[in-house]
Amino acid sequence: MTAIIRLLFATYFCWFSAPTVAAELSGVFIDDEISIEDGSSLVLNGVGLREKLWIDVYVGSLYLPGKSGDVAEILSRPGPWRVQLDFIYKEVASEQLIDSWCEGFEKNQTVETVKRLQTRIDTFYSYFKTSAVAKDQYRFDYFPGKGVQISKNQRQLGLIPGEDFKTALLEIWLGNHPADRKLKKGMLGLR
User: Fold this and answer.
1) Of 90, 138, 141, 144, whose CB is crowded by the most CB atoms within 10 A?
2) Domain 20-187: assigned CATH number
3) Backbone torsions φ then ψ of 157, nearest 5 degrees
4) How far apart are CA 118 and CA 112, in angstroms?
5) Global pTM?
6) CB crowding 5-43: b at 16 or more within 10 Å, else e
7) Residue 170 CB: number of other CB atoms within 10 A?
8) pLDDT digits (tens, 9 = 90+) for 125-180
């Protein structure tokens, strides 16, 4: 009898403590709330699909302490956030990833800002020495006062300091010249 009670309790605990899925996009299930390393709880602000030449490349999700569709407010927030990229395309070469990041930084920052950030941008590029393949997941977690932690498939790659770098990175998806306008709308929760 006690084994049955334990089994029922375990089932109940797993059922009600498991994260709930807020969305599914291109076969990727997106949690509606997450906890990051520092213990902060973040909610799904929005999710979208990165497309290039009619090819679905990755599902991008933005997690914030509270929902917002206002880019200026999101960029100026002092709190933590996460951008999560779940790759769905069979393979994106390292060079293509770095070219894409480079384009995002250069289109959304002044020449002076890119020069000032260049050492940290180069460090960021160094985390993309291998191709991204379907089912790879990149996480960019911002921790106030520390910087942006980059992870691939739940393995920490490094931490890049600076609020200025945090803003420049986030502008790749949310800036005036985003990687993909539909993805931006999705991450802002506007579609």
Assistant:
1) 141
2) 3.50.70.10
3) -100, -35
4) 10
5) 0.86
6) eeeeeeeeeeeeeeeeeeeebeebebbeebebeeebebe
7) 22
8) 999 999 999 999 999 999 999 999 999 999 999 999 999 999 999 999 999 999 89
